[in-house]
Amino acid sequence: VHVVESGGGLVQAGGSLRLSCTASDQSFSNYAIGWFRQAPGKEREFVGAINWGGRGRHYANSVKGRFTISRDNAKNTVYLQMDSLKPEDTAVYLCSPTLASYWEDPLEYDSWGQGTQVTVFT
Question: Residue 53: left (phi > 0), alpha (psi -120 to 50), or beta?
């Protein structure tokens, strides 16, 4: 399943952004979708994930309470709503599909898009 991320940009600390992860393949709805981020010189970091039906979610502690993942399978799209953004949230954000039950390991994911840059300034 090929995915494309969008919605990144430049935002002041405390602000919000909503990222989208969209696929053209209808089989998208069969997969859990994970969001990761990668800052320069750092490893890819798990942000959160949502199961195929949208009722199961899991977040990294660093974003819990600030970020929310949702999905609209009719639109083949998963969203990452990011509120109360901090400068340390600055990174390229990527999404990917998985059929695995453990969501935090990037090796469990099938394919990656180009990502979308999020930059948070003070």
Answer: alpha
